[in-house]
Amino acid sequence: MEPGSIITWVIVGAIVGLLADWAVKGIKLGLLGAIVVGILGGFLGGWIFGLLGNPFGATLLAFIIYAFIGAVILLLILRALRR
């Protein structure tokens, strides 16, 4: 992973974390928690879709999709562990 890609994942992940927190109900992480989950979800989504051969390509829109899916996966896991 190149340094430019890492910076992109962090920025996109922070924004997408807020969207994922809004989309997955039952988790109240607050602003900082949502940003952290978004960044981690960005890395998780990038890793998962990297294994799949990046089906959406390597565009900014693809990074947003990967980060959102990764963040939602993390939030669903977190919600399952809290119950």
Backbone shape: globular
Can you tell me the number of structural domains?
A: 1
Structural class call reads mainly alpha
**Beta fraction:** under 5%
Radius of gyration: 12 Å
* Cα-to-Cα separation, first versus last residue: 35 Å
Count of discrete alpha- or pi-helical segments spanning 4 or more residues: 3
Question: What is the mean pLDDT?
Answer: 83
Low-pLDDT parts are none
Overall number of strands: 0
User: Which bin fits the share of residues in helices?
Assistant: over 70%
- How would a crystallographer describe the biggest sheet? none
Q: What sequence of helices (H) and strands (E) makes up the elements?
A: HHH
Could you characterize what this model shows?
The protein has 83 residues and is an all-alpha fold. The chain has one domain (3-82). Helices cover 80% and strands 0% of the residues. It is built from three helices and no strands. α1 (3-23) crosses α2, α1 packs across α3 (60-82) and α2 crosses α3 (60-82). The model has no long low-confidence stretch (mean pLDDT 83).
Secondary-structure map with pairings?
Blueprint: H1 3-23, H2 30-51, H3 60-82
Please summarize what this structure is:
By secondary structure, this protein is mostly helical. It contains 3 helices and no strands.
